[in-house]
Specification:
mainly alpha; single chain; globular; Four Helix Bundle (Hemerythrin (Met), subunit A); 3 domains; 549 residues; 4 strands
């Protein structure tokens, strides 16, 4: 099978029906859950619609894998869209089945069913669309439908405030996408994404309108993926029901990365957009990872983790590692859906960890040996893949990304290898090699199946990423070795406060558009000047520091 077939031919009607199947099934369930429907019937319709969506998505992906790719009727059938469509349908089915017992007895169950299925329907349109305006409007509709779920507990002012913040950020992103749509039409004379890609390949120099459109699309992705300093709403929407949090973190927030992948040929030709994505994504990933270590609440920690992971995914897009960005999207969606839906079990496991004796923290020699083993084994794994399959390990960005993954696993592997006595160093090296080898292998698989790297990234970009994540590893290692040192005490208030970026955003955003009703008073209350003691989780120890809350 040709891994990257031409998609210029017209899409047959039967395949267009398969592509629209998930969205149509979810839309039917949303309409069925109207005011006149019984609650039990609404849930039954949602379950059947979610199951039908999985079937449509599975058959659509099977058709694409057999070679039936194409574009037509405003839709596009390719492997990337098929994988994401099946992912969305599967996660939606899981969330529907989880939601019914979770919300049993709630006063507004039908309201929840109606807007949950409407949200899933709009996501299905975003994934299937081959028309820029349809994609932009469907992405906007996804945000508006999700807003009704985030305000499910509308009597809670914090829920209304957080949803209002997301509403402001979402409308700014929508304006960027609509402006980008107009610029793309002006530059290429078409709204079909596949045709734009072919015109880009045949154009020596992109017109200014096209370059401006790509910058606006990148801005929209940064806004909707909750990148700093527009991240506050993602951390504060925890007042929504847990399955809504799972849907948001597993499916909705990832759409920014998917939209960028749809426009990959354009992004690869606009260095300014690449710089923006890499700079913003790297900064968010590094800072959010440090902030996450100060959090105790499981759901808030998961929210900061999503913020960091979205930054990493957008950084991959800026580096041109589109296949790895898609792999990241799929893996993150499955992990976050499970993590949120199992949040209660995570709390119980965290309590058990608190009650068990703590293992000794690795010292500087162990961390240094782990870092050397990670780098060495990454080089060995990349060399092995270069001999087996020439090409996948050729991009310097892939080496940098594999090195980041190896560094990220050093603390985990170190903690396990300390239990092996004198075998800890070989165990650490084997673990790092296995992870790096799997990473290069998945890159080769996705590059062959889905989407290749479209260009070699600019050298300053991947070098800057390497330095940023190297600095992150160094800071985390220092905090692990000396959790009660002066550095930890000095940094903790800043990281716990998220560098206080969200407070600045609140002042500006709420000055322009205040939250509705009584929530406005809550949103504008100043922070209490009260010193409280909070622990910082660094490695296997904690440090208590007074902070202003």
């Amino acid at each position: 099978m040709n891994p990257h077939p031409d998609i210029a031919h017209t899409l047959p009607i039967w395949q267009a029906a398969l592509l629209l199947g998930p969205a149509l099934a979810a839309s039917a369930a949303a309409l069925f859950a109207g005011p006149g429907a019984a609650t039990a019937a609404a849930w039954r319709g949602a379950r059947w619609a979610a199951l039908a969506a999985v079937g449509f998505a599975a058959f659509s992906l099977a058709a694409v894998l057999s070679g039936a790719t194409g574009a037509g009727h405003g839709l596009r059938a390719d492997v990337m869209g098929g994988v994401v469509m099946l992912l969305v349908a599967f996660v939606g089915w899981v969330i529907v089945r989880y939601s019914q017992p979770y919300l049993s007895g709630e006063r507004r169950e039908r309201h929840y069913v109606r807007w949950l299925m409407a949200t899933l329907a709009t996501v299905g349109v975003v994934v299937a669309a081959n028309h820029v305006l349809v994609l932009a409007l469907a992405w906007m509709a996804t945000s508006l439908a999700l807003h009704r779920l985030l305000t499910f507990f509308g009597e809670r002012p914090p829920a209304v405030v957080a949803a209002h913040k997301k509403f402001i950020v979402g409308r700014a992103a929508d304006l960027c996408m609509l402006a980008a749509t107009g610029l793309l039409v002006q530059a290429f004379g078409t709204m079909h994404i596949d045709q734009i890609g072919r015109l880009v390949a045949a154009t020596p120099q992109l017109p200014f309108a096209a370059q401006a459109a790509v910058l606006l699309i990148a801005c929209a992705a940064l806004l909707k993926c909750a990148q700093l300093p527009f991240h506050g709403w993602l951390i504060q929407v925890m007042e929504a029901p847990t399955p809504v949090s799972a849907l948001l973190h597993a499916g909705i927030v990832n759409l920014g990365g998917f939209v960028l992948m749809r426009f990959a040929p354009l992004v690869a030709e606009v260095p300014s957009a690449q710089v923006l994505l890499v700079a913003a994504g790297t900064a968010t990933a590094v800072l959010a990872a440090l902030v996450m270590t100060t959090r105790i609440s499981i759901k808030v920690m998961l929210a900061w983790s999503t913020c960091a992971q979205m930054g990493f995914m957008l950084m991959q897009c800026g580096l041109g590692a589109w296949d790895m960005a898609l792999l990241h999207l799929v893996a993150h969606s499955l992990y976050k859906a499970h993590a949120f839906l199992a949040a209660g079990g995570a709390v119980r496991r965290a309590m058990l960890v608190q009650l068990t004796p703590r293992a000794a923290a690795p010292g500087p020699p162990a961390l240094a040996a782990g870092a050397l083993a990670g780098v060495g084994m990454t080089l060995a794994a990349g060399t092995a893949w270069s001999l087996l399959v020439p090409g996948p390990a050729a991009s310097p960005a892939i080496w940098v990304l594999a090195g980041i993954v190896a560094f990220a696993l050093v603390p985990l592997v170190n903690a396990q290898s300390l239990r092996l006595g004198g075998l800890w160093l070989p165990a650490l090296g084997l673990g790092a090699f296995s992870v790096a080898f799997a990473y290069f292998g998945l890159h080769a698989l996705f590059a062959a199946w889905v989407l290749p790297n479209t260009a070699t990234p600019l050298a300053p970009l991947w070098m800057g990423v390497a330095l940023a994540f190297g600095a992150l590893f160094l800071v985390q290692s220092l905090l692990t070795v000396s959790p009660q040192g002066s550095l930890a005490r000095r940094l903790y208030p800043w990281f716990y406060g998220g560098l206080f970026l969200d407070e600045k955003f609140n002042q500006i955003a709420f000055g322009l558009w205040r939250p509705p009703g009584p929530a406005a008073a809550v949103a504008l209350l100043p922070l209490a000047d009260t010193s409280i003691a909070m622990p910082i989780a660094t490695g296997n120890s904690t440090v208590t520091t007074g902070v202003s809350a």
